[in-house]
Design brief:
The chain is mostly helical and 370 residues long. It has helices at residues 4-13, 19-50, 66-75, 81-84, 87-112, 122-139, 141-152, 167-177, 184-213, 218-247, 261-272, 288-312, 340-351; strands at residues 322-326, 329-333. The chain is built from 13 helices and two strands. It has a two-stranded antiparallel sheet with strand order 1-2. A hairpin with a 2-residue loop joins strand 1 and strand 2 (329-333). The longest helix has 32 residues, at 19-50. It starts with a helix and ends in a 19-residue tail after the last helix. The model is unreliable at 314-322, 333-339 and 352-370 (pLDDT under 50). It comes from Halteria grandinella. One of its GO terms (cellular component) is membrane. Pfam families: Mito_carr.
Length: 370
């Protein structure tokens, strides 16, 4: 019979970060981020080229229309390497971001959801997403600022470029500048809103659409689209602000153009989104198409990678809703509080050895797990 300590171990093992989750999550992140990294570069450059401009009409501004940026980068030659800026910085950014986000979310989610066999309430889920995303945004800011600067360096004149040789060079020079944590508040808000908005909306859409479409592949597709759209709309303004704070340079008088997150937001809304200057609020969403498309591809492809991992992993997760297969891939049975792995473990360890009596302490007491 498992002791209470063993039960608690299995409960917490798969709610928080562990070695298995670390490896699986980062492998999936490296696959999806490698494929979608060109879109991230396009988004960052679209945001930079929008700075100081007004927005007039759909797709008319070079700084807003991301696919024109993609076309210009292709015409400039240089191959795929120009989209990744620096391989070491790209790998470090992907691993640090993935690890920090999952670790922080898992930590706070474990605090609000004591029983892993159940899903947390929507408001608890929301709170864990905000807290986890905010912590991840702050922790990974030193890596993000160096990588963002490397991505936009080609936009500057030759003499104005930072020319970081590699990530460590950029990290050291940024540290000397005293700017490692610049933009961390905007980054925390961006990731907090992103993590908290998408998961709950995805579950809500998928659960309700099941009653209309049944076990159909359209459930996963349209739920992912809606979740990514909501995540894009609520997080992109702060992503735009973070990009500007990361890449800003002193003005001719030696003063920085922005003093912080609120000052940057005020100036964007006041000068670039004001109809009085022939603009509109869409200016703050520069690069929206690339941002949304990248987010959707990462989320959608990751779900199929997770299906493959679950269906081929020999160590299945205990104390989570049971998984079952249907047309959209692997889904969860919220009515069965135990996984098939736990049931198999129970049967093989405590029943298979000595019949039903083996599941009891002395053959008389009942087998109870609290």
């Amino acid at each position: 019979m498992p002791t209470q300590m063993e039960v608690e171990y299995w409960r917490r093992r798969y709610q928080r970060m562990n070695s298995e989750r670390f490896v699986a999550a980062n492998i999936m992140a490296l696959v999806t981020h490698t494929v979608t990294q060109p879109l991230d570069t396009v988004k960052i450059r679209s945001q930079m080229l929008q700075e100081g401009k007004t927005f007039i009409g759909l797709g008319m501004q070079r700084g807003w229309y991301p696919f024109q940026i993609l076309e210009e980068m292709n015409q400039a030659k240089g191959g795929l390497a120009r989209y990744y800026s620096s391989i070491d910085a790209f790998l470090l950014r992907t691993v640090s971001y993935t690890t920090a986000r999952i670790w922080a979310f898992g930590y706070f989610y474990d605090k609000v959801n004591k029983d892993p066999r159940r899903m947390a309430r929507f408001d608890y889920f929301l709170g864990a997403g905000v807290a986890g995303g905010a912590v991840a945004g702050i922790v990974t800011n030193p890596v993000e600022i160096v990588f963002n600067r490397m991505q936009v360096d080609e936009l500057y004149p030759e003499r104005a470029r930072r020319n970081y040789k590699h990530f460590l060079d950029g990290f050291y020079r940024t540290m000397e500048e005293g700017a490692l944590m610049r933009g961390s508040v905007a980054g925390a808000l961006k990731l907090g809103l992103l993590c908290s908005s998408m998961a709950g909306i995805f579950d809500l859409c998928k659960e309700n659409s099941y009653y209309f479409f049944g076990p159909h592949w359209i459930n996963r597709l349209w739920s992912t689209v809606i979740a990514c759209l909501c995540g894009t709309l609520v997080s992109m303004p702060f992503d735009h602000i973070r990009t500007r704070l990361h890449t800003m340079r002193p003005l001719p008088n030696g003063v920085m153009p922005y003093t912080g997150t609120l000052d940057c937001l005020y100036k964007i809304l006041r000068y670039e989104c004001n109809p009085k200057f022939g603009s509109n609020p869409q200016s703050i969403f520069a690069g929206l198409e690339a941002y949304f498309l990248r987010l959707f591809l990462i989320c959608y492809v990751s779900q199929f990678l997770l299906d493959y991992y679950h269906s081929n992993s020999h160590v299945q997760e205990f104390w989570q809703p049971a998984r079952f297969n249907y047309q959209t891939g692997i889904d969860y049975d919220i009515h069965d509080p135990y996984t098939d792995a736990f049931n198999k473990k129970l049967v093989s360890s405590y029943v298979g050895g000595g019949g039903m009596q083996a599941a009891q302490v002395n053959g008389k007491d009942g087998f109870v797990i609290i």
